[in-house]
User: What shape does this take?
Amino acid sequence: MSHTVNDLDTARAAAPGSPLARNRLPRWTPLALAVAAVLVGCGIGAGAGLSSHIQWGLIALVLFIASNYVVTRIADGRRQAKDRVATSLVYACFILAVVPLVSLVETTVAKGAKVLDGTFLSHSMSGVLGTEPGGGVYHAIIGTLEQVGIATVIAVPIGVFTAIYLVEYGKGSLARAITFFVDVMTGIPSIVAGLFILSFWILILGFGFSGFAGSLALTILMMPIVVRSTEEMLKLVPNELREASYALGVPKWRTITSIVIPTSIGGIITGIVLAVARIAGETAPVLLLVFGSQVINNDPFNGPQSSLPFYIYEQYNLGNTASYDRAWAAALVLIILVMILNLIARGIARWKAPKTSGR
Assistant: This one.
């Protein structure tokens, strides 16, 4: 055994510049294997007469993982080969998750850009036949902004105060009950929230269909998200900060408002914005409660009102070329709004992130 080890060391010393002698593959090896796997996979798919490019991609993926393992096993050993395979699987799963998203965005942009212009954004469907081109989405944008805004005004204070209670004060049966109901509300389907508001607000109390009714259902969906995100951010605040404040004689409520919340405000705002983006595309509660409208209704408390999800559903059901174009354009507008909200969330998170010194 000692002779074998000595011979191996001698061979490595004789060729110090060789990648195999360093027991490490070059960094470009996975990229080269991936390119080769794609070429071979495309060749096999074309030669076998496979019409789906997805099948070609799956063949290339299998070839890449197998070749990556074999080459790494020969050059670096079994442990490094297993690590490379695990890394390859992670990247493969990421690509498999991103490809449908990229395809969806590409299709929406390609089809929605046909009618997306200033006229479309500044006009409603009042006086426009569903089978004719023209009209716009202005009334639906107003409805979405008002409904989501009202839901945010209601859900954010309740959610934040609930999270503060659970983290800072919550003990005993009441805190356990609140946590249980928050978990239950997190898993409630949107249609159930809409049915609840429909039966209570409209059928029992006698109020009519309106944007506010839709906002109540969106509030039910938004509240548990705000509670959970705020709760996790408050838990990240070190207890040492609280204890230092208590040692100085600062009351608990002042410690929360002056120490705990400012420390976690970036994460709290990010969670709120993401919750807003989550409810902006809800369709089921709007279909049940808002009832839809072809004209501009700036009053969310009186009369039916449209929204972007309802507009998309409405135009798609008309079943003609003009309505399909309007539906795709409205979907593109909704995606842009959600992307803007996510960018705002990331900007706030970076702005409020703790500053690290260079020393």
About this structure: Confidence is low (pLDDT under 50) at residues 4-22. The chain has 14 helices and no strands. The two ends are 51 Å apart (CA to CA). The first helix runs from residue 2 to 14.
